[in-house]
Amino acid sequence: MKHKKNKSLKTYEANRRQILLEDNENEDKVIKRLEKRLGINRRPKIKKAVHPLWMRQCGFDYLLDFEKEVENSSKVHETKPLGQTRTKRHKSKQVNLYGQQTAASCDEEKCTETTSSNQHPTKTSSSCLDSPPDIVVPEGRPMTDSSNESLRKTIRSWINRISEAHMARVVAELTKLFSENPRATVRSLLIDEVCTLLESVPISTGSKEGWLQLDLSVCVACIHACLHARLQHDNLIAYLVESLVDKISLRKQSPVSTNVLSSFGLFLCSLFHFGVLSSKIVFDLLAVGVHLRKADFSACQNLIQIATKHLTSSTGPEQVDLICELEGVIRRLSEKHSKEECVTRALHLKKMMRSWMKGVSVSQEICLSVGLSDIRDRETRGRWWLVGSAGNPFSTITAVVPTQHTAAQALHSINEPGYHLAPEIEAAAENLGLRTTFRRQLFSILMSTPGGPDATASALLKACSSSGSGGSSHEREMIQIVVHCLMAEDPFNRFYPRVLGSFINAHRRFLMMIKCSFWDVLKKADLSVNAKANAGRALGILVLVFNLPLTVIKNFDFGDTSDGNVAFLRHVFVELCAGEYQHALAKLMQLSTYTLLSRNTRIFIRKHFSSETDEKLKSFVLRLAEDMRESEIH
């Protein structure tokens, strides 16, 4: 009886085990089917990475493989001997207010930096010599050597992957670096790497000619256009062209081979072909003009020599007509009658630019219109053309022409006796209603400091700190003057909100001062519609780019339906829509802490954007309001 009972128990356990195994198999099948439908844990197919063609032909393809071998060998060396337990190492990183590592935070990175510099001494020394000297980093945002070196390695690795197949990702990643790191540092490192690559790689690589120059130029043009679309326009093309011109003009001091000059010339011509550089500087550089010939060498060279003579001798409206006519002739010579593969591929890359930039188009606003005189003649113009005058081809640099004496005066104490203003600045200050001497001197520094928004903000802060007592009141006046200038200028100039953003990056105390200045703008009822609209656009740029909280509009009077009041808030949302959708939605969700403010904002959006003529803007804003309401409900 007992034996029979044990036998039945074993049979039951065997059947039960079989049922459980079948259930497990069925569950695994169901889970795999659901994962396949939902796209969860989808493993990408492992493909063998193919290096770009120019790297394989030049013999540089071992670089990426060498980095992988170093990583694998470092993993082998890090393994511990038998018998020791594994312990997790937690790196203690000391970060500053902006989340960046300080100088005393990473000793290991310094060690790796010294070893890498010992292995490649020539490359690091050349990159240090080629870096532009006029870059100004705002106070309060220190960048250590280790972080610069890691950023340089990141930029170098992405540039080494440039090819037509990987262009979209390379452009997206390099553009992303400008928002995650200080833009001046990323810009200088990117220019160094591009110049180094142009100097080291020949034009002809086997059967291909000028492929690397075309790939680099279209990549830089796409980054320039994407930064402009994201309201982070940093004059990348201007600084890059200036660096190349300096290398060409100083070739007597440091000899440059003809291959390097040809590479620079072909790169500049490609920038002109992709629409980010005008033909003015192309006509000035005769060495570049040689590379524009495609069908008839002598005809095109004679054409450029004639163009150079006319452009240097004649002034007036006929000069503009000549430029337009010559541009058309050169385009016909280089495109329609060409049998070279380089030009055919350039036309193909120009068509592909829009897909790589995800719909962003290259407009006339980002076409840099400068000549050699604007770059070389720094004693009279400084670098004022980088601020925005050169970006607009229809404007001329006649408003303010800062001299070297004025730029030197801007760095002195503003209470120093004998401080005289230029007559143009004096007249502009009188027109703006700046009565006191201190405000006029701050306005002079704002208008005449060369080097861009970061340098202007640093000069203004230095002037306020050297003014002695009452520094905080002087800082408030400084911000009020910048806000007053951005409201008074027509058309709207993005230079002024970038100066305000540099103040925010310098120290967080300016955040409240900028908030108070915009609250004062909301209270004023005697401002024009254009002034209120300019203030709204500036506030939208500060919210989108420089992380100013959108709750600054909590003092907005929704009951006031005047044109100026409506234009202010409307332009805030228009500038917000220039960024990514999720980023704009996150900014709008900051208003959810104020129930009444959030409700009034949604009502304002539906009321004033439901009849918008721009369908893209209308759908974007109304979708923001709908998603904002649904997120608050849930």
Helix content: 55-70%
Which strand order spans the largest sheet, edge to edge or round the barrel?
1-2
SS-based class: mainly alpha
What is the typical, i.e. mean, pLDDT? Answer: 69
> Sheet with the most strands?
2 strands, antiparallel
In angstroms, what is the radius of gyration? Answer: 30 Å
Strand content: under 5%
E-strand count:
2
Low-confidence stretches: 75-85, 95-100, 102-144, 286-296, 332-339, 379-415
Q: First CA to last CA: what distance?
A: 65 Å
Total helical elements: 30
The outline comes out as globular
Please, could you describe this protein's structure?
With 634 residues, the chain is an all-alpha fold. The chain has a domain at 128-134 and 143-294 and 339-375. It contains 30 helices and 2 strands. The chain has a two-stranded antiparallel ribbon with strand order 1-2. A hairpin with a 2-residue loop joins strand 1 and strand 2. The longest helix has 37 residues, at 2-38. It is globular. The termini are far apart. Residues 75-85, 95-100, 102-144, 286-296, 332-339 and 379-415 have low confidence and may be disordered.
